[in-house]
Amino acid sequence: MARQEDLHLVPLPKETTGRKLYTSSTVLKKGSILYPRCQGSQSSSFQLPPGGVPVTKDIAMSLRTLLFGGCIYLGNQEWMKSTFTFREPGSVFGYGLVAVKNNSKAVIMCVQAYILKNLLFNNKDVSQESSRDRDPLRPYKEKQQQTLGLAITDIIWKAIEGNSRCTVCLPGEQAYLERDLTYTPDGLTEKLNLFEFDRREDLLCFVTKYLYVFQQGIGHGVMLLLYSVILSRGIARVQEDLNEEYSELLTPGCEASQSLVTLFLTGRATPYLHNGVVNTLNENNEVKEQVGLMSRGEIGLLKHNRNDERSKELGSRLKTPSFPIWVTCADNHYGVLFNPRRDLIRDHRAEHRFDLHYYNGCPSQVDSTVLTLDTRFNKSQNEYRMPALEKIIITKWQGAKVSWNETEPYI
């Protein structure tokens, strides 16, 4: 982590804000330790740090339009009220975030996948951990906070591909935009302050210090991360990623689109799931490029939607990620499959018989779900009566026999 006395902010580029901005330094006491405040902190106790730049009308309207399709009507309140809350520390689901609201669940499960990556595969010496933190799937509060900060940092930093800076959005008390014929205040977007970083260490230090803002029960944690990722990628580049096929990152039903999920998993908001670039002809017989996945992802994606032909195009760069962690989507129900042993994706022999843990963020999930897969016989199966999660699994492990180990199938 960067030394706090070295932590600095850099100005937003002119093309982003439309005006000259000046470098500001974050005021941190030398030698102080950064710990997030408790999740119950109220927004009134939040002191906005110096160095941020107030959101402009152009940026606010672009963010609202990119997500909700316009600025006159208020966005979906499920998104506005969603935050990042952990299950009970040290419990069987101590690693898990709560995902009560279905619309924002896709984003929360993407963050969940990065939390698991940092819990299971951070390459730290286990002997240095306290005795109560030896089980990575039963973290206590300090470890929960640490891995959430790392997950948010991973996602924001991944989005800057090709850029030199990333952006973190924090809300202030003051609204910088007023109601008019083109903009209706939503209580968040017009209060944003933008902080930019050009070093990952500085980003992690800043996110860790203000992590509680993403976790406040009355806050806007999911939306703050959404805005931060979009601005880190760049509004124009997100629009370019959509390839004129889509204009918004949410569906008409205000659910996360495929583009939003791939933005969080890969740093690019592509709606395409195939490997590489595919050339197609449009209605005018003009060649049009469809840019899919250009590299292997850290986190994978497994998907099965009956009414989505594009899900059948899912390529190996998401099916076989660097870490054995997959965000799953079965008919728009999201969850996470994972294995705590990294050799599952390093040695094909490890895939003969193995376990997969499944977590979906619902508070009603009280017992751990561990599925056992056996791929040695590769028998054809009748998918008609197959549970939805098994349909997802066989898109990668064809012919696998799945045992729910006396757990009732669900998604």
| CA-atom Rg in angstroms | 21 Å
N-to-C SSE string, H for helix and E for strand: HEHHHHEEHHHHHEEEHEEEEHE
Strand order of the largest sheet: 6-7-8-9-10-11
**Morphology:** globular
Contiguous runs where pLDDT drops below 50 for at least 5 residues? 1-36, 38-44
The number of helical runs is 12
Walk me through the structure:
By secondary structure, the chain is α+β, with helices and mostly antiparallel strands. The chain is built from twelve helices and eleven strands. The strands form three sheets. A six-stranded mixed β-sheet has the order 6-7-8-9-10-11. A three-stranded antiparallel β-sheet has the order 1-3-2. The model is unreliable at 1-36 and 38-44 (pLDDT under 50).
